[in-house]
Amino acid sequence: MASRRHPVLASVGALLALVALLGCAARLLPEDMQALPYVPYVIALSPWFVLAAMVSLVCACIAHRWFTAAVAVACIVLQGYWQLPFYRNGEPLGAQAIAAVAQAKPAADDAFARVMTCNVYKGAADPQAIVDAVRDQHVEVLALQETTPQFVQRLEQAGIGDYLPYAVSASSGSGYGNGLWSAQPLQQPADAEFPSSASAMPAGTIRFDNGALPVRFVSVHTTSPTAQSWDLWRKSLTEMQQLTARTGTQYVLMGDFNATYDHAVFRDLLGSRFQDAARASGHGLVFSWPADKPWLPAFSGIDHIVTERGVVVGQVSTMRIGGSDHRALLATLDFTRH
């Protein structure tokens, strides 16, 4: 009788349970099937399906639709299993690391770094805002994606060289490029760290701890999943897995991966060697895209800072940069315990 008194709630609950179930099913698909048309978009929304499941559960309980309620509970449990690790406290940054990155001028004799990455949206981002962020956040290594020669020129005019005087950049056939800027010399600079079908991903090695600790940074930009590039999207992420075989090099990969942690191809890239900084820090879910619509908050975490397992990560945050459709992502890295 109760369900007849609440036909609308029963219908809404069933519909939302179906939405949540489809979202969970997409997350469970094997890597190759996750590259099917539009499936990457569904998976990118994975954390939000728990809200649909929660509303479904409330509606189902009021309407006494117990099967619907059971489906909703199952979806909530699954999403909790996948997303709650982002909120588990990782190893905290030590006082020495926090003090080191608080200095206005980065020191070359320590093993700590404040890093930042941002997609500058085809060179449309405000270069002064980026320089201001570098100054205010005491950034030591900066990775940018979708740069143009004109943007790099404006960035130099805005004073990036006053804080990060060393740089390596590269462009691709699309006319957009990627770059790295550093407070310390970039040794063994490369326009492309590995062959990629997506873009040239420049790299350079920075020697921390008085030169005793070399760390190689890469500015990453993979192919965006679109109606013309589903397979290329997966391919560009799979190509990055060749870095896992380079065991003699310690990497930090920063940039626009066009994938969230929920995409199997991104988790396969991490494997047993790498870690996602936001997840490792226990900061919580970090959403960096989109950032160019005042009426729409960022809802997808496709930008990442990826480090070797064992690197201690903290002070993870995002920052809006005018003109960009991505929020900048920042983190503090402690290499002393790796």
Automatic annotation (TrEMBL):
It comes from the Bacteria. The lineage of its organism: Bacteria, Bacillati, Actinomycetota, Actinomycetes, Bifidobacteriales. The chain crosses the membrane at residues 38-59, 66-84. It comes from Bifidobacterium pseudolongum PV8-2. Keywords: Endonuclease, Hydrolase, Membrane, Nuclease, Transmembrane, Transmembrane helix. InterPro entries: Endo/exonu/phosph_ase_sf, Endo/exonuclease/phosphatase. It holds the Pfam family Exo_endo_phos. Residues 116-326 form the Endonuclease/exonuclease/phosphatase domain. One of its GO terms (molecular function) is endonuclease activity. This is Endonuclease.
